[in-house]
Task: inverse folding
């Protein structure tokens, strides 16, 4: 007998857990690179913050792309196209995060950190949907 109405099985599954794990691991790498560059290597240079952010985010995003591609979504073809689509998604999410945080902070004069978290969590879920249904979609099998 097929179980109907178990909506949570579509949300809580191994693929989604792997997506969360890959995001956490990538974020840890991003933070570690940022920390190393700003606290140990150039601890007195304030101008290193932008460079450390870019280097950390680039390394974290690259790791996340490969973890999602090969481990989470298990898609082994179209790497060039997928990397371009992933880069576009990355830029769009980066811009939307900045845009919404800036807009809400300007309008309501609240701490940017307080609003950034819910915005980035929302973008995390949107990013998952885009990756699952567009970037790392499985090719359709031809009917014969």
Result:
């Amino acid at each position: 007998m097929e179980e109907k109405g178990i909506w949570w099985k579509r949300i809580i599954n191994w693929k989604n857990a792997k997506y969360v794990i890959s995001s956490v691991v990538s974020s840890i790498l991003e933070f570690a690179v940022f920390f190393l560059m700003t606290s140990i290597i150039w601890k007195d240079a304030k101008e290193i913050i932008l460079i450390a952010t870019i280097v950390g985010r680039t390394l974290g995003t690259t790791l996340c792309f490969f973890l999602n591609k090969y481990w989470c979504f298990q898609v082994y073809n179209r790497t060039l196209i997928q990397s371009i689509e992933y880069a576009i998604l990355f830029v769009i999410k980066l811009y939307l995060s900045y845009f919404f945080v800036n807009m809400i902070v300007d309008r309501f004069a609240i701490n940017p950190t307080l609003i950034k978290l819910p915005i980035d969590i929302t973008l995390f879920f949107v990013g998952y949907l885009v990756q699952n249904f567009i970037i790392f979609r499985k090719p359709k099998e031809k009917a014969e």
